[in-house]
Write a structure and sequence with these properties.
The protein has 489 residues and is an alpha+beta fold. It has two domains: 313 residues, Up-down Bundle (Outer membrane efflux proteins (OEP)), CATH 1.20.1600.10; 61 residues. It is 70% helix and 10% strand. The chain is built from twelve helices and six strands. The strands form two sheets. A four-stranded antiparallel beta sheet has the order 2-3-5-6, with no helix packed on it. A two-stranded parallel sheet has the order 1-4. α1 crosses α2, α2 crosses α7 and α7 packs antiparallel against α8. The longest helix has 68 residues.
Length: 489
């Protein structure tokens, strides 16, 4: 969806460039949202929160890990002492001495058997010494080179509710990131609308100032002819020239303000500041809405449901309640199932062998905190206090938002009344200017009265433009206050 949104934003921007950079309010909003750096950051925050949620879910699943190692020792472990090794290696000699003595005794009794018995005794002595040495070699461990490896599986069975609470926290955190993104989007839309209507206001005032200057220049030209004919004084001409200079200065200020306002709008939309842009509403003669936004019977519950700030505080409150469970879980029993396979070389399952051999193992671990001098109770109480603070902040925000909505509704009604008054004042100023112009042309009204009528007309026109823009902005403020400000408004 985000890729599609960016594609359409780029497409809209391309189309606007091809149409001589004619931008509507919707296209300005789309460009501003697509290029705003804070919104790009908040989108990444949403991604990060989503990955955190996925990572938290893995705590429900078995954890499998492997470990291995190698160690080289300067000496090997010995199961026999040096005395035992010597005794076993010389067991034939030890036992052969009595046999030799017995063979000599028999040899004296039986001379013909003496040589055979002596040879037999020597043979038995050698065989027993060889067997003893073999036994010593069999008891060697050869542990100078040791290898070990283990594969372990851990499955949490009960962690005091910590895993479940942490999953809820990460789910709330993802939704909180979305609400913060929506809040930032509304701020971008509001800033874009303010800059847009500021450009429209100054563009209309520029046309007004140009028309007023042309009118004064015409009066100045007529006044010069009247002075030449002697039907007007130089003082009258100087008063007109002063008004012309004032009108030129006003037009200069309006042009400078309009240039800066266009640059601000370009910056918000991510367009080069030197790009010449034209807004669709600059060509509108009447900016008044036929159907003003209703301000009565505003349902505050619906407002609370739409305002991202309220939803964010609600999520924060729920997160703090789950943090209480996380803190409490640290002082509750935890149970886990463990299993694994361990292999070593040398192995000891068939004496000491230089072979990899191992065994399976399965078990259950239980951890039960017994006494921590009330640390858990104090931490749980602190977490509950933080949860109550979040609830108080939520209640305070609701009160302030209700006040903000009422103030915005009042401003909308007030702006509508001001527009109605400005339109009436403009009608009177038009009528006054018409009579003053006719009287001046007939020579029955002095120049000063005509200039005053023109000044009053200019002021009435400017007030009407301001009132129309004020109606637009106050409606935007009310939509934002009620949570209804979206890109398609």
């Amino acid at each position: 969806m985000k890729k599609i949104f960016c594609f359409f934003a780029l497409l809209a921007f391309t189309l606007t460039l091809k149409a001589q950079t004619m931008l509507s309010l919707d296209s300005c909003r789309t460009l501003a949202i697509a290029n705003n750096k804070h919104l790009l950051i908040s989108r990444e925050n949403i991604k990060a929160a989503r990955y955190e949620k996925k990572a938290a879910f893995t705590n429900f699943l078995p954890n499998i890990s492997a470990a291995g190692g190698y160690m080289r020792s300067s000496r090997e472990l010995s199961l026999l002492s040096d005395a035992q090794k010597g005794a076993l290696s010389g067991i034939g000699t030890t036992l052969g001495t009595p046999l030799q003595q017995a063979a000599q005794a028999l040899g004296q009794l039986f001379p013909e058997l003496g040589g055979q018995l002596s040879a037999l005794g020597e043979s038995l002595t050698g065989a027993m010494n060889s067997a003893g040495s073999s036994l010593v070699d069999a008891f060697r461990t050869d542990t100078r080179n040791m290898y070990a490896g283990a594969l372990t599986l851990t499955q949490p069975l009960y962690m005091g509710g910590k895993i479940r609470a942490y999953n809820k926290i990460t789910r709330y955190a993802e939704e909180l990131a979305r609400q913060q993104h929506n809040s930032g989007m509304q701020e971008v839309i509001l800033s874009t609308d303010q800059a847009y209507w500021q450009v429209v206001s100054l563009a209309n005032k520029k046309k007004l100032a140009e028309g007023y200057l042309e009118l004064l220049q015409k009066i100045e030209s007529d006044m010069d002819k009247m002075i030449a004919e002697g039907v007007a004084t130089k003082a009258d001409g100087l008063s007109v020239k002063v008004k012309v200079n004032e009108a030129e200065m006003t037009l200069t200020k309006v042009n400078d303000g309009l240039t800066l306002a266009r640059m601000l709008l370009c910056q918000l939309c991510g367009i080069d500041l030197s790009t010449p842009i034209t807004l669709a509403d600059e060509q509108e003669e009447d900016l008044s809405d036929n159907a003003p936004m209703p301000t009565r019977d505003i349902d505050m519950n619906s407002v609370y449901a739409l305002r991202p700030e309220i939803r964010s505080l609600e999520l924060a409150t729920q997160m703090y309640h789950q943090k209480v469970n996380v803190v409490r879980a640290d002082y509750l029993p935890s149970i886990a199932l463990i299993g694994g396979y361990t292999a070593t070389n040398p192995s000891v399952f068939n004496s000491f062998e230089n072979k990899f051999k191992g065994m399976w193992n399965v078990g259950v671990t239980v951890s039960l905190p017994i006494w921590h001098w009330g640390e858990g109770i104090y931490k749980v109480k602190a977490a509950k206090s933080a949860a109550r603070i979040a609830q108080y902040q939520l209640d305070d925000a609701k009160e302030k938002i209700e006040l903000q909505v009422n103030q915005s509704a009042f401003q909308v009604n007030e702006a509508a009344k001001k527009l109605a008054m400005a339109e009436k004042n403009l009608e009177k100023a038009n009528e006054n200017l018409r009579y003053a112009t006719l009287g001046f042309e007939e020579g029955v009204i002095p120049t000063s009265n005509v200039l005053e009528a023109h000044t009053a007309w200019l002021s009435a026109q400017s007030e009407k433009i301001d009132a129309q823009i004020d109606v637009k902005l106050t409606e935007i403020y009310l939509k934002k206050a009620t949570g209804q400000l979206t890109i398609n408004d």
